[in-house]
Design a protein that fits this description.
Strand content: 15-25%
Number of helices: 16
Number of strands: 18
Largest sheet: 6 strands, mixed
CATH architecture of the largest domain: 3-Layer(aba) Sandwich
Distance between the termini: 58 Å
Shape: globular
Oligomer: single chain
Bound molecules: zinc ion
């Protein structure tokens, strides 16, 4: 008999230092699809849901599409939004009585009053689903995994890449692993190890040291008989929660082999510890590099205002220095009111950015120039290697070009630079720019590394600062971890 498999998910990376609350509106604005709309919207995309749909078809499942919702990383999910979303997914598990469940999770979601929100969701689905229904879940490499999540699921599969180009592949793998569990009736042994370590996106790219060696060890582990899946969750540093930090999860039929291989991956991470220290350049020096003549853009990377990590994307430290020194290039600033003020005009002069956290991310900066692009409700479809095919809203957008050639892209929605389409869509050819500011940790590499003359990681303040010693952690969990131990 054809197995009926519920496909659903909830995706949010929560920055508990961000004051931007994540409500239902934020999910509706970014990713929200349910029932037949889920299949229509995500089929063929390089996302977990896209991969799960593809994998389900390949193994002959009857897919039962539930709800998938995702919001751009921001502050804690409101209690009512979490209740609504988790409730809908759990209700589907009860109502549909599926034979198996595929869940696309992030793993670093924090809701008001629910610090381990992914675990709470998975537990609720488990409790609502028929007894013993296998649950296979995917998680982001930035998950803060905790024991309750491991307990609630039969098998967890983390992304093996950062930037995350394998979301679709992991979704597909989840369907194949679920098919094996259904075919045999067996449940894999689980091994979960938590490390007292936190790292930051800047040093987590899986194709570069030190993570390349760690992921090579993961591949070696997964080739061992009796070991099915080993994943590294680097954790998401910008959450003041006790279950913060790196984790390694392993699943397979041979508990001894899984335990041994997970331990070897833990060793590889701990051995590389000092290589996870980020290196940053002061703002004045970095903008000075961007001002030097040359071919191709200098990418000024600003991890502290990483939109993909929950920062507002309206930080002005680099903008202020570029304006002061009249450095040409392109910078994207989230500023719905400035975007609205520029729309319908030939010229714009006024304060830009610095609306959310001026003490940390800089005060508004006055920008003056010609409005060279102006369009309401801009959308585009990601065509880079990351989340390929996903629809992205930019909100109302205006581009103000100063007389010294700096394009200030004012957006109504916060935009994660996971591809260069967000610039090309508003009339900017990134390869032709002398400087590009990327408010990103490492994901910018997918968009700009191939065209960059040079990349400089800039030291600014912010809720995603690479130097996490600056963040106001209050919980004991983070303080137990390297590099905070002994610092805070
Ligand atoms: Zn991630």
């Amino acid at each position: 008999m054809t197995a009926r498999v519920l496909i659903a998910g909830l995706w949010h990376e929560t920055n508990t230092f961000s004051p931007i609350a994540t409500d239902l509106k934020a999910f509706r604005a970014y990713q929200w699809a349910e029932g037949t709309d889920l299949a229509t919207r995500y089929a063929g995309t390089n996302t977990e849901i896209g991969g799960m749909l593809k994998g389900a078809a390949a193994v002959g499942f009857q897919a039962v599409p539930g709800l998938f919702a995702g919001a751009i990383p921001s502050g804690p999910v409101t209690a009512s939004a979490f209740e609504t979303l988790a409730g809908r997914i759990a209700d589907a598990a009860r109502r549909e009585r599926p034979d198996g469940i595929l869940l696309a999770l992030h793993g670093a979601m924090v809701a008001e009053g629910v610090p381990e929100a992914d675990a709470a969701l998975a537990r609720r689905v488990r409790d609502c689903a028929p007894a013993d229904v296998p649950i296979v879940a995917t998680y982001d490499l930035h998950a803060n995994i905790s024991q309750p999540l491991v307990d609630a699921c039969d098998l967890l599969i983390g992304y093996d890449t950062f930037p995350h180009t394998d979301m679709g592949a992991r979704g597909e793998e989840a369907a194949a692993r679920l098919a094996a569990l259904l075919a045999t009736g067996n449940r894999p042994a689980k091994v979960f190890r938590k490390l007292a370590m936190i790292t930051v996106p800047q040093t987590q790219a899986t194709a570069e040291p030190p993570m390349a060696a760690v992921m090579a060890r993961v591949a070696q582990a997964e080739a061992v008989d009796g070991v099915d899946v080993v994943s590294v969750a680097q954790g998401f540093a910008y959450a003041d929660v006790d279950h913060l930090g790196i984790a390694v999860t392993g699943f397979g039929s041979d508990p001894k082999a899984v335990t041994r291989e997970v331990a070897a991956v833990v060793d590889a991470i701990e051995t590389a510890r000092e290589q996870f220290q980020p290196v940053l350049v002061p703002v004045m020096e970095a903008v000075g590099v961007a001002a030097e003549p040359g071919t191709g853009p200098v990418v000024l990377v600003e991890p502290a205002d990483n939109v993909g990590g929950g920062a507002p994307g309206d930080g002005t430290a680099i903008l202020a220095e570029m304006v002061r020194r009249r450095v040409p290039g392109t910078i994207v600033i989230w500023d719905p009111s400035a975007a609205a003020g520029a729309r319908g005009r030939k010229r714009f002069a006024g304060p830009v950015g610095g609306r959310t956290l001026p003490d940390l991310h800089g005060a508004p900066v006055t920008v003056e120039g010609t409005v060279v692009f102006d369009e309401p409700a801009v959308r585009y479809v990601r065509d880079g290697a990351y989340m390929t095919g996903q629809q992205v809203p930019m909100g109302d957008v205006a581009v103000v070009r100063t007389d010294f050639g700096l394009n200030v892209v004012l957006t109504g929605e916060r935009v994660m630079p996971f591809d260069d389409t967000h610039l090309r869509r508003v009339g900017i050819d990134p390869a032709g720019e002398p400087a590009l500011v990327a408010k990103s940790g490492s994901a910018w590499k997918i968009a700009f590394q191939a065209i960059a003359r040079r990349a400089v990681v800039v030291d600014t303040g912010g809720v995603c600062a690479s130097l996490i010693e600056r963040l106001p952690y209050t919980r004991s969990g983070p303080r137990r971890c390297w590099p905070l131990n002994g610092v805070c």
